[in-house]
Design goal:
This protein is mainly alpha-helical and 311 residues long. 71% of the residues lie in helices and 0% in strands. The N and C termini lie far apart (87 Å). It is found in: Cytoplasmic vesicle, COPI-coated vesicle membrane; Golgi apparatus membrane.
Protein backbone atom coordinates (compact mmCIF):
# COMPACT_ATOMS: atom_id res chain seq x y z
CA UNK A 1 0.00 0.00 0.00
CA UNK A 2 1.24 3.48 -0.87
CA UNK A 3 2.23 5.86 1.91
CA UNK A 4 0.15 8.99 2.48
CA UNK A 5 2.92 11.05 0.86
CA UNK A 6 2.92 8.94 -2.29
CA UNK A 7 -0.87 9.02 -2.40
CA UNK A 8 -0.73 12.84 -2.43
CA UNK A 9 1.98 12.85 -5.12
CA UNK A 10 -0.02 10.42 -7.23
CA UNK A 11 -3.14 12.55 -6.81
CA UNK A 12 -1.28 15.63 -8.03
CA UNK A 13 0.00 13.79 -11.08
CA UNK A 14 -3.37 12.29 -12.01
CA UNK A 15 -5.10 15.68 -11.78
CA UNK A 16 -2.42 17.53 -13.73
CA UNK A 17 -1.00 19.61 -10.87
CA UNK A 18 2.40 19.28 -12.49
CA UNK A 19 3.98 22.55 -11.34
CA UNK A 20 3.16 21.82 -7.72
CA UNK A 21 4.53 18.32 -8.11
CA UNK A 22 7.90 19.30 -9.57
CA UNK A 23 8.34 21.83 -6.75
CA UNK A 24 8.26 19.11 -4.09
CA UNK A 25 11.48 18.10 -2.35
CA UNK A 26 12.52 14.53 -3.12
CA UNK A 27 12.62 12.12 -0.17
CA UNK A 28 15.89 10.68 1.08
CA UNK A 29 17.34 8.24 -1.51
CA UNK A 30 17.11 5.47 1.10
CA UNK A 31 13.38 6.05 1.59
CA UNK A 32 10.94 3.63 -0.10
CA UNK A 33 9.13 6.74 -1.39
CA UNK A 34 12.21 8.02 -3.24
CA UNK A 35 11.88 6.19 -6.56
CA UNK A 36 8.08 6.54 -6.91
CA UNK A 37 8.31 10.28 -6.19
CA UNK A 38 11.24 10.64 -8.58
CA UNK A 39 9.27 8.94 -11.36
CA UNK A 40 6.17 11.09 -10.83
CA UNK A 41 8.29 14.26 -10.78
CA UNK A 42 10.16 13.29 -13.95
CA UNK A 43 6.89 12.48 -15.71
CA UNK A 44 5.47 15.82 -14.57
CA UNK A 45 8.41 17.60 -16.18
CA UNK A 46 7.71 15.68 -19.40
CA UNK A 47 4.02 16.64 -19.22
CA UNK A 48 5.12 20.28 -18.89
CA UNK A 49 7.13 19.78 -22.10
CA UNK A 50 10.38 20.12 -20.18
CA UNK A 51 12.09 16.79 -20.90
CA UNK A 52 15.55 18.21 -20.20
CA UNK A 53 14.62 18.81 -16.55
CA UNK A 54 13.32 15.24 -16.37
CA UNK A 55 16.61 13.89 -17.69
CA UNK A 56 18.60 15.96 -15.19
CA UNK A 57 16.47 14.54 -12.39
CA UNK A 58 16.85 10.89 -13.40
CA UNK A 59 19.96 9.23 -11.90
CA UNK A 60 22.41 7.87 -14.45
CA UNK A 61 23.13 4.16 -14.50
CA UNK A 62 19.92 3.01 -12.81
CA UNK A 63 18.94 -0.60 -13.52
CA UNK A 64 15.28 -0.04 -12.62
CA UNK A 65 13.21 -0.62 -15.77
CA UNK A 66 10.71 2.14 -14.93
CA UNK A 67 13.49 4.68 -14.42
CA UNK A 68 15.06 3.68 -17.73
CA UNK A 69 11.71 3.89 -19.51
CA UNK A 70 11.06 7.35 -18.10
CA UNK A 71 14.45 8.49 -19.40
CA UNK A 72 13.67 7.02 -22.83
CA UNK A 73 10.31 8.83 -22.98
CA UNK A 74 12.01 12.09 -21.98
CA UNK A 75 14.58 11.61 -24.73
CA UNK A 76 11.81 10.90 -27.24
CA UNK A 77 9.95 14.11 -26.30
CA UNK A 78 13.19 16.11 -26.43
CA UNK A 79 13.97 14.70 -29.87
CA UNK A 80 10.44 15.50 -31.05
CA UNK A 81 11.05 19.12 -30.20
CA UNK A 82 14.19 19.17 -32.34
CA UNK A 83 12.59 17.17 -35.19
CA UNK A 84 15.44 14.65 -35.03
CA UNK A 85 13.94 11.51 -36.57
CA UNK A 86 16.94 9.31 -35.79
CA UNK A 87 16.94 10.29 -32.12
CA UNK A 88 13.18 9.75 -31.92
CA UNK A 89 13.44 6.28 -33.41
CA UNK A 90 16.36 5.40 -31.13
CA UNK A 91 14.24 6.30 -28.09
CA UNK A 92 11.31 4.26 -29.40
CA UNK A 93 13.62 1.28 -29.87
CA UNK A 94 14.80 1.63 -26.26
CA UNK A 95 11.19 1.45 -25.13
CA UNK A 96 10.50 -1.55 -27.35
CA UNK A 97 13.50 -3.33 -25.84
CA UNK A 98 12.31 -2.52 -22.31
CA UNK A 99 8.81 -3.79 -23.14
CA UNK A 100 10.41 -7.10 -24.12
CA UNK A 101 12.77 -7.10 -21.13
CA UNK A 102 9.97 -6.87 -18.56
CA UNK A 103 8.51 -10.13 -19.85
CA UNK A 104 11.56 -11.93 -18.46
CA UNK A 105 12.21 -12.96 -14.86
CA UNK A 106 15.43 -11.02 -14.40
CA UNK A 107 14.10 -7.51 -15.08
CA UNK A 108 15.02 -5.06 -12.31
CA UNK A 109 11.80 -3.64 -10.87
CA UNK A 110 8.51 -4.45 -9.17
CA UNK A 111 5.28 -5.42 -10.91
CA UNK A 112 4.17 -1.79 -10.71
CA UNK A 113 7.46 -0.71 -12.31
CA UNK A 114 6.87 -3.14 -15.17
CA UNK A 115 3.31 -1.89 -15.60
CA UNK A 116 4.67 1.66 -15.77
CA UNK A 117 7.08 0.64 -18.53
CA UNK A 118 4.08 -0.40 -20.65
CA UNK A 119 2.35 2.92 -19.97
CA UNK A 120 5.43 4.97 -20.83
CA UNK A 121 6.10 2.95 -23.97
CA UNK A 122 2.44 3.19 -24.95
CA UNK A 123 2.57 6.95 -24.44
CA UNK A 124 5.55 7.29 -26.77
CA UNK A 125 4.04 5.02 -29.40
CA UNK A 126 0.79 7.00 -29.30
CA UNK A 127 2.66 10.28 -29.74
CA UNK A 128 4.47 8.71 -32.68
CA UNK A 129 1.16 7.73 -34.29
CA UNK A 130 1.78 4.01 -33.76
CA UNK A 131 -1.69 3.35 -32.35
CA UNK A 132 -1.79 -0.42 -32.88
CA UNK A 133 1.64 -0.85 -31.29
CA UNK A 134 0.56 1.29 -28.34
CA UNK A 135 -2.58 -0.79 -27.75
CA UNK A 136 -0.66 -4.04 -28.11
CA UNK A 137 1.98 -2.86 -25.63
CA UNK A 138 -0.61 -1.70 -23.10
CA UNK A 139 -2.75 -4.82 -23.48
CA UNK A 140 -6.49 -4.17 -23.86
CA UNK A 141 -7.18 -6.80 -21.19
CA UNK A 142 -4.81 -5.16 -18.68
CA UNK A 143 -5.73 -4.72 -15.02
CA UNK A 144 -3.46 -1.72 -14.57
CA UNK A 145 -5.70 1.32 -14.22
CA UNK A 146 -3.19 3.81 -15.60
CA UNK A 147 -2.87 1.67 -18.72
CA UNK A 148 -6.67 1.63 -18.99
CA UNK A 149 -6.72 5.44 -18.75
CA UNK A 150 -4.30 5.69 -21.67
CA UNK A 151 -6.24 3.12 -23.71
CA UNK A 152 -9.41 5.15 -23.14
CA UNK A 153 -7.62 8.29 -24.32
CA UNK A 154 -6.45 6.47 -27.44
CA UNK A 155 -9.93 5.21 -28.28
CA UNK A 156 -11.45 8.65 -27.76
CA UNK A 157 -8.77 10.21 -29.98
CA UNK A 158 -9.73 7.90 -32.86
CA UNK A 159 -13.46 8.52 -32.34
CA UNK A 160 -14.26 5.16 -30.75
CA UNK A 161 -16.10 6.14 -27.56
CA UNK A 162 -17.86 2.76 -27.67
CA UNK A 163 -14.56 0.97 -27.09
CA UNK A 164 -13.56 3.51 -24.46
CA UNK A 165 -16.79 2.82 -22.58
CA UNK A 166 -16.14 -0.94 -22.76
CA UNK A 167 -12.73 -0.43 -21.16
CA UNK A 168 -14.27 1.66 -18.40
CA UNK A 169 -17.06 -0.83 -17.70
CA UNK A 170 -14.51 -3.69 -17.68
CA UNK A 171 -12.23 -1.85 -15.25
CA UNK A 172 -15.09 -1.20 -12.80
CA UNK A 173 -15.26 -4.94 -12.17
CA UNK A 174 -11.78 -5.11 -10.65
CA UNK A 175 -10.62 -1.55 -9.90
CA UNK A 176 -11.36 0.21 -6.66
CA UNK A 177 -13.44 3.39 -6.80
CA UNK A 178 -10.34 5.46 -7.01
CA UNK A 179 -9.61 8.94 -8.32
CA UNK A 180 -8.24 7.74 -11.63
CA UNK A 181 -11.35 5.66 -12.29
CA UNK A 182 -13.49 8.75 -11.69
CA UNK A 183 -11.28 10.75 -14.03
CA UNK A 184 -11.67 8.11 -16.76
CA UNK A 185 -15.45 8.27 -16.40
CA UNK A 186 -15.41 12.08 -16.53
CA UNK A 187 -13.20 12.11 -19.63
CA UNK A 188 -15.58 9.79 -21.45
CA UNK A 189 -18.49 11.97 -20.33
CA UNK A 190 -16.73 15.07 -21.64
CA UNK A 191 -16.43 13.51 -25.10
CA UNK A 192 -19.86 11.84 -25.27
CA UNK A 193 -21.94 14.49 -23.50
CA UNK A 194 -23.59 11.94 -21.22
CA UNK A 195 -26.30 13.44 -18.96
CA UNK A 196 -25.60 16.91 -20.30
CA UNK A 197 -22.03 16.80 -18.94
CA UNK A 198 -23.40 16.95 -15.39
CA UNK A 199 -21.21 14.19 -13.93
CA UNK A 200 -18.12 15.57 -15.66
CA UNK A 201 -18.81 19.10 -14.44
CA UNK A 202 -19.42 17.90 -10.88
CA UNK A 203 -16.19 15.90 -10.83
CA UNK A 204 -14.04 18.84 -11.97
CA UNK A 205 -15.76 21.20 -9.53
CA UNK A 206 -15.19 18.76 -6.66
CA UNK A 207 -11.48 18.47 -7.44
CA UNK A 208 -11.08 22.23 -7.75
CA UNK A 209 -12.56 22.54 -4.26
CA UNK A 210 -9.57 20.70 -2.81
CA UNK A 211 -7.52 23.36 -0.98
CA UNK A 212 -4.31 21.31 -1.34
CA UNK A 213 -4.57 21.13 -5.15
CA UNK A 214 -3.74 23.75 -7.79
CA UNK A 215 -4.37 22.34 -11.25
CA UNK A 216 -4.67 24.52 -14.37
CA UNK A 217 -5.35 21.29 -16.23
CA UNK A 218 -8.59 20.71 -14.30
CA UNK A 219 -9.53 24.38 -14.66
CA UNK A 220 -9.17 24.07 -18.43
CA UNK A 221 -11.18 20.84 -18.45
CA UNK A 222 -14.00 22.50 -16.52
CA UNK A 223 -13.80 25.50 -18.84
CA UNK A 224 -14.27 23.24 -21.86
CA UNK A 225 -17.15 21.49 -20.10
CA UNK A 226 -18.77 24.85 -19.44
CA UNK A 227 -18.44 25.81 -23.12
CA UNK A 228 -20.26 22.61 -24.03
CA UNK A 229 -22.95 23.45 -21.45
CA UNK A 230 -23.27 26.96 -22.99
CA UNK A 231 -21.99 28.56 -19.80
CA UNK A 232 -19.73 30.94 -21.70
CA UNK A 233 -18.95 33.63 -19.07
CA UNK A 234 -18.13 30.91 -16.51
CA UNK A 235 -15.95 29.12 -19.07
CA UNK A 236 -14.08 32.36 -19.79
CA UNK A 237 -13.40 32.78 -16.08
CA UNK A 238 -12.01 29.26 -15.72
CA UNK A 239 -9.83 29.52 -18.80
CA UNK A 240 -8.38 32.91 -17.88
CA UNK A 241 -7.58 31.65 -14.38
CA UNK A 242 -5.90 28.59 -15.89
CA UNK A 243 -3.75 30.81 -18.13
CA UNK A 244 -2.68 32.83 -15.10
CA UNK A 245 -1.32 29.63 -13.57
CA UNK A 246 0.18 28.25 -16.78
CA UNK A 247 0.80 31.03 -19.26
CA UNK A 248 0.66 30.26 -22.97
CA UNK A 249 -0.78 26.74 -22.61
CA UNK A 250 -1.91 25.73 -26.09
CA UNK A 251 -5.05 23.80 -25.15
CA UNK A 252 -6.28 26.49 -22.78
CA UNK A 253 -5.72 29.19 -25.38
CA UNK A 254 -7.56 27.08 -27.96
CA UNK A 255 -10.52 26.73 -25.63
CA UNK A 256 -10.49 30.47 -24.89
CA UNK A 257 -10.51 31.19 -28.64
CA UNK A 258 -13.64 29.06 -28.95
CA UNK A 259 -15.28 30.79 -25.97
CA UNK A 260 -14.37 34.18 -27.45
CA UNK A 261 -16.01 33.25 -30.74
CA UNK A 262 -19.16 32.34 -28.82
CA UNK A 263 -19.40 35.79 -27.26
CA UNK A 264 -17.01 35.75 -24.32
CA UNK A 265 -14.99 38.61 -25.83
CA UNK A 266 -15.70 41.51 -28.13
CA UNK A 267 -14.98 41.05 -31.84
CA UNK A 268 -11.73 43.04 -31.81
CA UNK A 269 -10.50 41.17 -28.72
CA UNK A 270 -11.42 37.85 -30.33
CA UNK A 271 -9.48 38.68 -33.49
CA UNK A 272 -6.48 39.78 -31.44
CA UNK A 273 -6.60 36.53 -29.44
CA UNK A 274 -6.82 34.45 -32.62
CA UNK A 275 -3.81 36.26 -34.11
CA UNK A 276 -1.83 35.58 -30.95
CA UNK A 277 -2.88 31.93 -30.93
CA UNK A 278 -1.88 31.37 -34.57
CA UNK A 279 1.46 33.07 -33.95
CA UNK A 280 2.30 31.09 -30.80
CA UNK A 281 0.90 27.71 -31.87
CA UNK A 282 0.95 27.51 -35.69
CA UNK A 283 0.84 23.70 -35.69
CA UNK A 284 -2.10 23.33 -33.31
CA UNK A 285 -4.92 21.18 -34.78
CA UNK A 286 -7.40 24.06 -34.45
CA UNK A 287 -5.14 26.38 -36.45
CA UNK A 288 -4.53 23.73 -39.12
CA UNK A 289 -8.24 22.91 -39.34
CA UNK A 290 -9.26 26.55 -39.82
CA UNK A 291 -6.52 27.01 -42.44
CA UNK A 292 -7.74 23.94 -44.33
CA UNK A 293 -11.32 25.24 -44.30
CA UNK A 294 -10.18 28.68 -45.50
CA UNK A 295 -8.35 27.03 -48.37
CA UNK A 296 -11.38 24.95 -49.26
CA UNK A 297 -13.59 28.03 -49.18
CA UNK A 298 -11.22 29.90 -51.50
CA UNK A 299 -11.26 26.95 -53.92
CA UNK A 300 -15.05 26.94 -53.97
CA UNK A 301 -15.18 30.71 -54.52
CA UNK A 302 -12.73 30.43 -57.42
CA UNK A 303 -15.02 27.91 -59.14
CA UNK A 304 -18.13 30.06 -58.73
CA UNK A 305 -18.98 32.34 -61.61
CA UNK A 306 -21.01 35.43 -60.80
CA UNK A 307 -23.87 35.66 -63.33
CA UNK A 308 -24.19 38.80 -65.38
CA UNK A 309 -26.58 41.42 -64.10
CA UNK A 310 -29.94 41.52 -65.87
CA UNK A 311 -30.14 44.39 -68.34
Amino acid sequence: MDSSEIYHVKQQFILGAYKSLVALTLPDPNSPDYTPTLLYQARAHIALNDPDSALRLIPAGSDNVAVKATASLAKYVAASGSASKDAQEASLEELRDLAVEIEGDDAEGSDSDKALVRVLAGTAFTRAGEIEEALETLGVDTEDLEAVALIVQIYLSINRPDLAKKQFERSKRWAEDDLLLQLIESTIGLVTGKDGYSNTSSFYTEQLGNPSLTSPHILTARGVTRILRNEIPEAKSDLEESLEQQKGDAETLAALVVAAGLGALKKAETEELWTRFVSEHPDHPLVLDVAAKESLFDECVAKYEVPALAA
